[in-house]
Amino acid sequence: MTTTLRAVHEDITTLAVDAIVNAANSRLLGGGGVDGAIHRAAGPRLLEACRALGGCPTGEARITPGFELPASYVIHAVGPVWHGGGHGEARYLADCYRNALRLAAGHELASIAFPCISTGVYGYPFEAAAKIAVSTVRHTLAQAPTLREVIFCCFSGRERDHYAVLLSDGNPR
Ligand code: APR
Asked: How far is the CA of 133 from the centre of ligand 1 (A)?
């Protein structure tokens, strides 16, 4: 079976997929940006579930229920803060996508949506991050055989268009 990769311009909290990925911080206690939006939409039980996890190192991911979200699960991934590119940022970012897909596979999920991890408050250059996101997902799909759909959920039309170009380059799936 094939897995569809697509880019959308949406608020990720509205997506009725098996899991949405949160661009979290290592404390996993909420924040601004997409983290704040997800916690607001999921309700207070999400914070309780996150408290029980005791944090998450950069590059790793943890899974909780989605509570009041349309998504069944939230996969909290902790992206790197951009410090110029010489501190392993690219590897940590790729690890976020790899580890989120590993969790999706472990829970036999069929659909997952990613925000543009680290490209907001954490300052990662958008184009470089998008390239890592698409190539890491493409190279990890074989390890997530239940996945039918991967959505790159952008918060602007410009970002969505950029992902659409990356996804349309005809690479064999
Ligand atoms: N839906 C989809 N994407 C969103 C949404 C939303 N509702 N809100 C914000 N975004 C986008 C931003 O426009 C950006 O492209 O998510 C991307 C990631 O930006 P941030 O949320 O700032 O996340 P990040 O750069 O990874 O920084 C993480 O910010 O919010 C805090 O607690 C969080 O400390 C952590 C840090």
From this structure: 15
Please state, as a whole number, how many other Cβ atoms lie within 10 Å of the Cβ of residue 170: 6
Sequence-distant (≥ 6) Cβ neighbours of residue 84 within 8 angstroms: none
Count of CB atoms within 10 A of residue 118's CB? 27
The residues facing 7 across adjacent strands are 152
Model pLDDT for residues 64-112, shown as the tens digit of each residue:
999 999 999 999 999 999 999 999 999 999 999 999 999 999 999 999 9
Catalytic residue among 35, 95, 161, 169: 35
Question: For the domain 4-167, what is the CATH code?
Answer: 3.40.220.10
pLDDT of residue 1: 74
The full set of domain ranges for the chain reads 4-167
